[in-house]
Inverse folding.
């Protein structure tokens, strides 16, 4: 892995929802964009999270009021779907990344005390694994508004990629005020 590469920054749908729709929060998004661009960065949103924000990953932009304006401005990208089948058991023949997603799903369930997990949350870990496995970056920074997901992702990815992944939890109402801090966009 090249140490000269910038970290990849992955966000979940909760970061966008917590900040609000761009048309209603232009000043906030302008500040976030300024910080992201000052670090020569982009924010990456997994395809499943784009769907959660009313987007169609097969046609981007597709009319999502939540994220399409940010995509059109060029500082947010939607990534291709991450492999893995939520209905397949962990022991079934599946991809290595699918197994990683099942491990994260299990870790999230442990954090949620038996609540039903959201398979979409595992896409954050799957995308981080894909980026690091393909040597597209030396580090990955993940931002989420789901504390159990953050803890589960930390547990699994720290074992597989020690020292290469950081995750930040943001209370669902905080992204609008806290997410514009430049330290969230650099290693």
């Amino acid at each position: 892995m090249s140490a000269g590469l910038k970290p990849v920054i992955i966000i979940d749908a909760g970061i966008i929802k917590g900040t609000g729709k761009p048309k209603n929060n232009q000043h906030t998004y302008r500040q976030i964009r300024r910080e992201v661009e000052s670090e020569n960065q982009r924010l990456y949103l997994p395809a499943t999270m784009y769907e959660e924000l009313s987007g169609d990953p097969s046609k981007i932009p597709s009319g999502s009021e939540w994220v399409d304006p940010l995509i059109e401005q060029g500082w947010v990208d939607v990534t291709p779907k991450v492999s893995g089948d939520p209905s397949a058991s962990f022991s079934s023949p599946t991809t290595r990344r699918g197994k990683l997603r099942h491990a994260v799903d299990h870790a999230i369930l442990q954090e949620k005390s038996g609540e039903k997990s959201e398979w979409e949350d595992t896409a954050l870990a799957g995308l981080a694994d894909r980026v690091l496995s393909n040597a597209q970056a030396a580090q990955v920074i993940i931002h989420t508004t789901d504390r159990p997901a953050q803890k589960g992702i930390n547990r699994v990815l720290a074992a597989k990629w020690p020292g290469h992944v950081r995750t930040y939890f943001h209370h669902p109402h905080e992204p609008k005020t806290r997410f514009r801090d430049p330290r969230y966009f650099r290693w």
